[in-house]
């Protein structure tokens, strides 16, 4: 029977075990308190709004990365796909009406993800190799279609999306609302939907899942396709924020997405991870960058700090499993 929080804390070494088990929330709270102490502008509406805007794009692809990692896979192509799909959206929104441009971009993203899913699920290619190849192809295609230069929105639909992406509703940035809605959908799917339970089961024990009659290849194919569709959603948001699509967008975002998922407590072996913890991981990465920016620390040391946080989070997972 599960212990209550009070019983966990009162047991020998209970407080330390509790902190390790809930390390993602603990790290998040510590960073928020530290941010408030070092800067009197941290809790201003402008700073918090900027923070949410900055993490929303990476946050959306992190949810896609989570469902891939839950099956024991990895998707290195999402950053490059954001670049290609941002360019694609810019071309489409300058050509077609806005709803059709959005729909086509997401369908293209789903299709690109399906390519990786097919290679991994049906051709038994290692996820690392399949998505690494797609990462290179997608980035190259982005530069080809954009002819090496950003494509600016020139139509009413594009300007409407730019206005949407840079404004707020009830004080919350619109793109952050989109991100939060995707997190909620992922939470419901993983906790209450058959699809979510099955991909967790596949990540926990793929062979047992196959023997129990689960169509493992089908679900492994679908998680990469969904990751592609979410990369398309992130691309639309990022392009709309800047009013252009550029092949340089999403650079190394796949690494930030993996970091967010790992910091959120997911296992790279599959079968373990939640959407809410991934949200926390995304916010933790955003807080690190925000704190260092407020302290006027250059971008290069920020990568060192992020790497140290990832190592710390993984070590805490090892202690938790003991």
From TrEMBL:
Ranges in a coiled coil: none
Positions of transmembrane segments: 25-46, 58-91, 97-121, 128-146, 170-190, 221-239, 275-294
Membrane topology note: Multi-pass membrane protein
Subcellular location as annotated: Cell membrane
UniProt keyword list: Cell inner membrane, Cell membrane, Membrane, Transmembrane, Transmembrane helix, Transport
GO cellular component, one term: plasma membrane
GO molecular function, one term: transmembrane transporter activity
Full protein name: ABC transporter permease
């Amino acid at each position: 029977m599960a212990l209550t929080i009070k019983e966990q804390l009162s047991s020998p070494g209970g407080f330390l075990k509790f902190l390790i088990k809930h390390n993602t929330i603990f790290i998040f709270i510590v960073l928020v308190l530290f941010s408030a102490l070092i800067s009197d502008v941290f809790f201003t509406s402008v700073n918090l709004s900027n923070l949410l805007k900055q993490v929303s794009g990476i946050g959306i692809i992190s949810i896609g990365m989570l469902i891939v990692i839950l099956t024991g896979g990895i998707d290195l192509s999402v950053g490059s796909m954001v670049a290609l799909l941002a360019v694609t959206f810019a071309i489409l929104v300058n050509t077609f009406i806005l709803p059709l441009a959005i729909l086509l971009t997401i369908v293209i993203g789903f299709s690109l993800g399906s390519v990786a899913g097919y290679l991994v699920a049906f051709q038994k290619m290692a996820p690392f190799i399949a998505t690494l190849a797609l990462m290179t192809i997608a980035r190259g295609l982005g530069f080809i279609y954009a002819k090496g230069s950003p494509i600016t929105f020139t139509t009413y639909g594009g300007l409407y999306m730019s206005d949407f992406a840079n404004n707020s509703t009830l004080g919350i940035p619109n793109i952050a609302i989109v991100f939060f809605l995707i997190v909620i959908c992922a939470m419901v799917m993983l906790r209450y939907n058959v699809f979510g339970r099955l991909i967790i089961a596949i990540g926990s024990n793929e062979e047992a899942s196959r023997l129990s009659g689960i169509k493992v290849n089908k679900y492994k194919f679908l998680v990469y396709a969904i990751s592609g569709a979410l990369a398309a959603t992130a691309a639309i948001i990022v392009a709309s924020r800047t009013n252009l699509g550029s092949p340089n967008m999403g650079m190394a975002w796949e690494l930030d997405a993996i970091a967010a998922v790992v910091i959120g407590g997911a296992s790279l072996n599959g079968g373990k991870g939640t959407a809410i913890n991934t949200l926390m991981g995304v916010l933790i990465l955003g807080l690190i960058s925000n704190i260092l920016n407020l302290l006027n620390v250059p971008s290069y040391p920020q990568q060192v700090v992020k790497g140290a946080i990832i190592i710390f989070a993984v070590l805490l997972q090892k202690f938790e499993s003991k």
